[in-house]
Design goal:
Elements (H helix, E strand, L loop, with lengths): L12 E3 L6 E3 H6 L15 H8 L6 E2 L18 H12 L5 E8 L2 E8 L10 H17 L3 E7 L7 H20 L4 E10 H4 L8 E5 L4 E2 L3 H7 L11 H6 L5 E3 L1 H19 L27 H8 L7 H8 L1 E5 L12 E8 L2 E8 L5 H6 L7 H17 L3 E7 L6 H5 L2 H12 L6 E10 H5 L6 E5 L3 E3 L3 H9 L5 H8 L3 H6 L5 E3 L10 H20 L3 H13 L6
Length: about 550
């Protein structure tokens, strides 16, 4: 981490604390103290951060109850009270956090913004009380909470009482979870110790500002205790993203629009969850009876389902939704590239989109593990589904996978456990869940996104307990028997519809979805909007009951 100094308001030219290059001061300030050359993000004070994120003139401070000031009578090289007074004079703040109600592009929010310049943003009794008071105000007013973190950890001068603030603030966020209120954490540089191990990482969505570092034990602590050599990029925002620990990394100028997007999504559910009347009857000519589908060669259908020209989940996200914001990570192990998800708007209705991601060429397919989800991918999907359930957002899943990833790492990571957890979770979600099989529906890796109120399939999609190649290898003991296995598995849309595995089939353009991807997306869009119109108007208890009945009847004699 690079120490930064305040830039005087009168500075004509300043030296970037990152690259040490000269930059014009006025441009630097207009760019929110981000270097135009190297992109270094200098630290902001809490008042500066409030001005950056919140609508002008919308801020009203939130007070907090008085707390003990110097519970230990602590003195190191100087008395704690003297350090506290010095921090107040230097920053003009009473404490290391500023809490307020405000709006972001018109959306109400409760904000708690930390200031690293005040004793390293340390978490003491007053900070813990202020964060908790802000969360309680959010709860009382049914308003989302945004916390901007910048801290070295718990305040040592307040001893165990500072430590207890971690639990105090964590239970305050738990209350917001129970109430279904959105929480967002904006992690800035640095965020460590007790703050990182409490409210900074408990939010629904965690966004790291570019250049941020976050962890429990800081580099100096690690070097000074267990003497480990730290790897390149240790605890950086980018490393946290790759490790599945944050949803996104954004430049400073991108934070406000992203925050407004999330607040807008949360507001839809609290505003009555209205869907456009035009969605009613918007479906294309769906096929509802198996007899209306022609019999096709199963192996040729498999080839069509696997064609790399078919639209992928990210293609659908781009052309189906507006302002799609991808959310990353399982918050435990990593960010699986084979399963993607995030929030976008479909005719102003926020949708949680989750799906398998393949690719259009070898490079993309390899980068996304051929759409074969890992435990981290299924846990990411589960996390996003729980968020949708909490906020009341409809869920759309797009299924296109040869199956869950089969390998030593996946098994060691609990592949079976992750899939099983998704099946249980989806059976309980109290929001509309719509699944569309857009290509391959391979085994448990597909079903982990397929426990839905309605399941649709494209005309050349397939859905099976195992791939034809796998079935041939096990039962025929001959991989060349895959075409025979495909026919025996009856995995095409006609048989899926006959058995009720899918509720309707979306016809594809002549020759297959890959022949006209844009028309395919339009047909899927029409089917999705018509189906969600029905589901969004259904009582949550009824949704769950009917979903459970749907899967309860499979395999039972009529």
């Amino acid at each position: 981490m690079t120490a930064t100094t305040a830039v005087p308001a009168s500075s004509l030219w300043i030296r970037c604390p990152g690259c040490e290059g000269p930059t014009y001061g006025e441009h630097y300030r207009r760019r929110l103290r981000v270097c135009p050359g190297c992109g270094h993000h200098a630290r902001l004070t809490a008042p500066e951060r409030l001005r950056q994120l919140l609508d002008p003139g919308s801020t009203t401070p939130i007070g907090a109850s008085p707390t003990v000031v110097d519970p230990l009578g602590f003195t190191d090289t100087r008395p704690y009270l003297a350090r506290l007074e010095q921090a107040r004079r230097a920053t003009g703040l009473r404490e290391a956090v500023v809490c307020a109600t405000a709006t972001v592009r018109g959306h109400p929010v409760v904000a708690a913004v930390m200031d690293f310049g005040f004793m390293g943003g340390s978490l003491g009794c007053a900070v813990g009380e202020s964060i908790t008071a802000a969360a309680e105000h959010a709860l009382a007013t049914a308003t989302p909470l945004v916390v901007v973190t910048a801290s070295g950890g718990a305040r040592m001068q307040e001893g165990a009482l500072a430590l207890m603030q971690m639990a105090k603030t964590s239970q305050a966020l738990a209350d917001l979870d129970d109430a279904g209120l959105l929480t967002v954490s904006l992690v800035t540089d640095p965020t460590y110790g007790g703050v990182a191990a409490s409210y900074a990482t408990l939010a629904d969505v965690i966004v790291a500002e570019a250049g941020a570092h976050m962890g429990f034990a800081g580099p100096r602590v690690i070097a000074g205790t267990i003497k480990q050599t730290l790897p390149e990029g240790f605890q950086t925002a980018e490393t946290l993203l790759a490790g599945g620990l944050v949803d996104a990394v954004r430049r400073r100028a991108e934070l406000r629009p992203l925050l407004a997007h999330l607040l807008s999504a949360a507001a839809w559910a609290t505003g009555g969850r209205a869907v456009p009347a035009a969605w009613r009857g918007s479906a294309p000519p769906l096929v509802l009876g198996a007899e209306r589908l022609p019999e096709r060669d199963a192996w040729q259908t498999v080839a069509l389902a696997r064609d790399p020209g078919r639209p992928t989940t990210l293609d659908y996200a781009c052309y189906l939704l507006e302002d799609f914001q991808e959310l990353h990570g399982d918050r435990v192990f990593g960010d699986c590239p084979a399963i993607v998800g995030g929030i976008g708007r479909l005719d102003d209705v926020p949708i949680m989109l989750i799906g398998h991601q393949k690719g259009h060429d070898t490079r993309e397919l390899v980068a996304h593990d051929f759409g074969m989800g890992s435990p981290a991918g299924f846990r990411k999907a589960a996390r996003l589904m729980r968020l949708a359930g909490k906020l009341g957002l409809p869920i759309l899943t797009l299924i296109d996978t040869p199956g869950a990833y089969a390998g030593v790492e996946a098994e060691a990571g609990g592949q079976a456990h992750a899939i099983a957890e998704n099946l249980r979770l989806m059976s309980r979600l109290r929001v509309p869940v719509l699944a569309v099989v857009t290509g391959e529906g391979g085994s448990g890796g597909a079903l982990a996104l397929g426990v839905a109120d309605r399941v649709l399939a494209l005309g050349n999609a397939v859905y099976s307990v195992i791939s034809p190649e796998g079935c041939a290898a096990i039962l025929w003991r001959d991989a060349a028997a895959a075409p025979r296995a495909a026919a025996a598995l009856r995995l095409g849309a006609r048989e899926l519809l006959r058995h009720g595995i899918v509720d309707a089939v979306i016809p594809e353009p002549d020759g297959g979805a890959h022949r006209d991807p844009s028309l395919t997306v339009r047909l899927v869009r029409q089917a999705v909007t018509a189906t969600l119109y029905e589901l969004a108007r259904t009582d949550p208890d009824r949704l769950v009951a009917e979903r459970r009945r749907r899967f309860r009847r499979f395999g039972a004699r009529a």
